[in-house]
Amino acid sequence: MIDTVVEKFEWTESEIVNDWLRRGLKEGEAKGEARGEARGKQDLLIKLIEKRYKGSITYDLSDLIRKETDPERLDRWSLLTLELSTMQELQNQIMASSSSNHQGDANGNFSTNGNNSH
Questions:
Q1: Do 104 and 97 touch, CB atoms closer than 8 A?
Q2: Contact, 45 vs 37, CB < 8 A?
Q3: Is 16 contained in some domain?
Q4: Is 6 contained in some domain?
Q5: How far apart are CA 79 and CA 75, in angstroms?
Q6: What is the reported pLDDT for 116?
Q7: Backbone angles phi, psi at 40, to 5 degrees
Q8: Number of domains forming the structure of the chain
Q9: Is residue 46 part of a domain?
Q10: How much is the pLDDT for 10?
Q11: What residues make up the domain containing 14?
Q12: Where are the beta strands (DSSP E) in the chain?
């Protein structure tokens, strides 16, 4: 009788631990995928800037881009390279909307005229 109770307890404990491990692995995979997606978008944005503005990206701008992890915001910034004439204009827009600065509207939206209103 005691052996049966102990065996059942060990099995239950093992299932709980296995469930925790599965959840942890899933969460870890999701976080890793999100980081990888953001890193790819950061790399692409930096390449677009260097190609579009024919020069090296500034350290400050590179740092802002590397700190940003929101894929949608990184996509919006990439599209701005098609609209803005200078790297300085782009940097100003990115600074105004970066999540690390907590500026722009709640969704990180901004307009290309330097005005954050919609």
A1: yes
A2: no
A3: yes
A4: yes
A5: 6
A6: 39
A7: -65, -40
A8: 1
A9: yes
A10: 58
A11: 2-97
A12: none
CB atoms within 10 A of CB 107: 11
Q: Cα–Cα distance between 66 and 113 in angstroms, integer?
A: 24
Q: Which of 63, 62, 72, 64 has its CA nearest to residue 41?
A: 72
pLDDT of 13:
64
CB 97 within 8 A of CB 110: yes
Reading the chain (118 residues) residue by residue, the pLDDT tens digits are 555 555 555 555 688 888 888 898 899 998 999 899 999 999 999 999 999 999 889 999 999 999 999 999 999 999 999 999 999 999 999 999 987 654 444 444 443 344 433 3
Give dist(CA 50, CA 87) in Å, integer: 9
Flag whether 115 is in a domain: no
Give CA–CA dist 34/29, Å, rounded: 9
The secondary structure of the chain in percent helix, strand, coil, rounded to multiples of 5, reads 70, 0, 30
